[in-house]
Amino acid sequence: MKFIKSLFLCTAGALWASPVFAIPACYNSAQVHAEQMLRLHSELMVITITCRQSSDGRALTPAYTSFTHRYVKTIRAAEQVMIAYYKTAKKGDPVSQLDALRTRLGNEIGQKVAKVSAPTFCAINRDKVVQFAMASPEYLEREVRSMEKNEPSYVSPCKIRTAMAGKDR
Questions:
Q1: What's the confidence (pLDDT) of residue 11?
Q2: CB-count exposure of residue 73 (10 Å: 0-12, 13-18, 19+)
Q3: Is 81 helix (H, G, I), strand (E, B) or coil?
Q4: Which of 6, 91, 103, 150 lies deepest, with the highest CB count within 10 Å?
Q5: What pLDDT, on the 0 to 100 scale, is given for residue 18?
Q6: Half-sphere exposure of 55 (CA within 13 A, CB side)
Q7: Coil, strand or helix: which one is 5?
Q8: What pLDDT shows up at residue 156?
Q9: Measuring CA to CA, which residue among 57, 74, 64 is closest to residue 42?
């Protein structure tokens, strides 16, 4: 009897731990949008640190700071969306996971710099910081939506996984 009870508990435990009962590791549209907003913010930071000046000689730090202050609510909202995702997905401490995402985004952009060289990267991207510092909320939203289509997220959107699996969620 003890053996059967142990076997039952082990089987039940294995079933509970199986992916069938796991929360899907995919992003809804708000999470995709939030990650792309944070990607843009990280990209502007890397451009600022790497390039230091716009093509017309303006310092990029004030422009980056202006963008960050101007859109602080948008950036914080994106961070909260990602923290909520990490809580739901049970991927460890949500704030640590957000920090890891920010680090990963910054490193990804840093790799782009390394791939082409800082002078080439800056020639292509340096004015983006000034452009976004002066951007309207509508322009920012359009650009982030465009990034959703052109920049892959670290976690697949649920719709794509669902379509690939042939199931509705």
A1: 38
A2: exposed
A3: helix
A4: 91
A5: 36
A6: 10
A7: helix
A8: 86
A9: 64
Read off the tokens for 164.
């690939």
- Phi-psi group of 94: left, alpha or beta (phi > 0 → left; psi -120 to 50 → alpha; rest → beta): alpha
Quickly list H helices, the chain.
2-17, 29-51, 60-70, 72-89, 94-116, 118-125, 127-133, 137-150, 158-165
CA distance 44 to 67: 9
Residues of the chain with pLDDT under 70: 1-24, 91, 159-169
Q: How much is the pLDDT for 160? A: 53
Contact 169, 41 (CB under 8 A): no
Q: Is the dihedral of CA 145, 128, 96, 151 positive or negative?
A: positive
Q: Do residues 39 and 76 lie in contact, with contact meaning Cβ atoms separated by under 8 Å?
A: no
DSSP three-state, residue 90: coil
Distant-in-sequence, close-in-space partners of 126: CB < 8 Å, separation ≥ 6: 47, 51, 53, 54, 55, 60
| Residues 154, 146: Cα–Cα separation, whole Å | 16
Beta partners for 157?
27
